[in-house]
Amino acid sequence: MHRTRLLKGLSVFLVIGIGLGVAFAADAPAKKYAETITTKGGDKISFEMVLIPAGKFQMGSPDAEAGRKPDEGPQRQVQINAFYLCTTETTLELFLTYYDEMVTARVEAAQAATSAAAEGKTVDAVTGPTPVYGNVTMGYDKKHPAIGSTWNNATTFCKWLAKKTGKPYRLPTEAEWEYACRAGTTTAYFFGGDPALLGEYAWFKGNSDAEPHAVATKKPNPWGLYDMYGNVYEWVSDFYGPDAYKAATGSPLVNPLGPETGKLHSARGGFYNLTPDVLRSASRGVEEKWWSMNDPQIPRSKWWLPQMDIIGFRVACTVESKDAEKK
């Protein structure tokens, strides 16, 4: 009799426990999700976001790492909150939806402003890209990365995406990008220290034929992220500072945002025509004046780097806590 009661009690406990387990799992952020955008023409475009788990890592490279540059150190311990990161670089397919909507809105706003001015009225301005000088696709397929945007344009894209979906999309920080790229590893590359394996994971000088390629055509890193090395540089949110790591204080640094001010922004991952030593997880890139050399405008456009197919971006999304949602 006692045994029967014990078994019944255990059964109830297990049922409750399983139920609680489901409840706890439901409260946790999803490990991945697919976002779907509808174009003006009614087409559906989807992309996948993967959860990057919270954790700590050593940001930067050790002194003995081959190819190391001074701006990669000193190494510092960094703590990162969980966030989502797109499994691929933003594609032309998705970017063209933004471009069509925002450029159309700009033209319509200009027309409305002209009409309003004639009536002595004012209208709100539309903040979005001007029409690009040349072809926004540069002749590449829709599954190729979106290229030729300035940091300002990439940031505006994220704001557009956030407004369209209701989710807090943004560029990743430089620390988040390296943490996600490393995927828990400490070697020069997430696949180890031997650059001979790079061709399995990246488009670079050894295999690219001097041009970018469609996203996700190489192997992903351990967290399911494609093209973290090579293909195109990826904008991150930080201003670039060659001594940024030296200036940072605190251990660990919690979700660092980089220098508070600056004139240039950081880019990560390298691009298709670089050698393996520049494609390490810790390697840092920075925008350069020659990136805008094909822009005929004076002053240079704040939106476009015409014919510059070496720079793109991927989007991140903040994991909002219950407290944040209540606010």
Structure in a nutshell:
The chain is an alpha+beta fold. The chain is built from six helices and twelve strands.
Overview of the structural elements:
This protein has one domain (30-326): paralog of FGE (formylglycine-generating enzyme), CATH 3.90.1580. The protein is α+β, with helices and mostly antiparallel strands. It contains six helices and twelve strands. The strands form three sheets. It has a five-stranded antiparallel sheet with strand order 1-2-5-12-6. Strands 10-9-7-11 form a four-stranded mixed sheet. A three-stranded mixed sheet has the order 3-4-8, covered by helices on one side. Mean pLDDT is 86; it is low at 1-26, 110-117, 121-126 and 323-327. Strand 1 and strand 2 form a beta hairpin.
Key words describing this protein structure:
327 residues; alpha+beta; paralog of FGE (formylglycine-generating enzyme); five-stranded antiparallel β-sheet; four-stranded mixed β-sheet; globular; disordered N terminus; disordered C terminus
Mean pLDDT across all residues, rounded? Answer: 86
Unreliable residue stretches = 1-26, 110-117, 121-126, 323-327
* Annotated CATH architecture: Alpha-Beta Complex
Q: How large a portion of the residues is in β-strands, by DSSP E? A: 15-25%
Structural class: alpha+beta
Give the helices and strands, then pairings:
Layout: H1 2-27, E1 32-38, E2 44-52, E3 55-59, E4 76-80, E5 83-86, H2 92-118, H3 151-165, E6 169-170, H4 174-182, E7 233-239, H5 244-247, E8 253-254, E9 265-268, E10 284-286, E11 311-312, E12 316-318, H6 322-326
Parallel strand pairs: 4-8, 7-11
Antiparallel strand pairs: 1-2, 2-5, 3-4, 5-12, 6-12, 7-9, 9-10
